[in-house]
Write a structure and sequence with these properties.
- Helix 3 crosses helix 8 and helix 8 crosses helix 12.
- The longest helix has 22 residues.
- The chain has 12 helices and 3 strands.
- Helices cover about 60% and strands about 5% of the residues.
- By secondary structure, it is mostly helical.
- The mean pLDDT is about 80.
Length: about 200
């Protein structure tokens, strides 16, 4: 059949998801979905859900980081690349679980794994060594440690009650300004956080 411009004009709106002018086509009042808009909406929802999932699983990442610092992984690899087995032996860790932790730290771009399962520090991972001039080791131990994490579980109740008293709820006592300053100084000293 020869090309008929009227056929093409009738098909274009349909291909774009617009109402057609042909007889029997959906009327303007009916909802017609455009495949492009559906794909865009799906992509937009995917991006939004990724952001929310990133927030949900943020604690996993911070606790993986905390475990690596607490167990001394970054200091152990500071001397140079090592296999997971050697690192586990030096630190007294279970070899299989140590390998999984090292891989998890690698997924956070704190470690680099070679083909022979040898791990080394990345530039970011270097900041978690205790002997680094700008070390973040102490801050990690302080902020991700059990004392600080214990306070966050009281946030919904504090907002509901209108009382900012996480220390009282968790530890059963108030910390006045002077006591709080001493407590913070002691915690900082214990974790090697420099005082300003």
């Amino acid at each position: 059949r020869p090309f008929d411009r009227r056929d093409w004009q009738a098909k274009v709106p349909t291909m774009l998801g617009l109402p057609s002018t042909r007889r029997g086509a959906p009327r303007i009042g009916k909802k017609v979905t455009c495949p492009f808009s559906t794909a865009f909406r799906a992509q937009e929802e995917y991006v939004l859900s990724r952001k929310v999932l990133d927030l949900i699983f943020g604690r996993w990442r911070s606790q993986i980081l905390y475990a690596g610092v607490k167990l001394g992984i970054f200091d152990a690899l500071g001397a140079g690349p090592k296999t997971a087995a050697v690192t586990a032996r030096e630190l007294g860790l279970d070899p299989a679980l140590a390998y999984r932790l090292l891989r998890a730290l690698g997924s956070l771009e704190l470690l680099r794994e070679d083909k022979d399962r040898t791990f080394s520090l990345t530039e970011t991972g270097e900041l978690l060594r205790s002997d680094h001039p700008q070390t973040l080791r102490g801050v990690t131990l302080l902020e991700e440690g059990p004392e600080h994490y214990a306070l966050w579980k009281h946030l919904p109740a504090m907002v509901r009650d209108g009382k900012q008293n996480a220390f009282m709820r968790e530890f059963g006592r108030w910390l006045e300004a002077r006591g709080l300053a001493r407590s913070v100084a002691a915690t900082c000293a214990r974790h090697g956080v420099p005082r300003t």
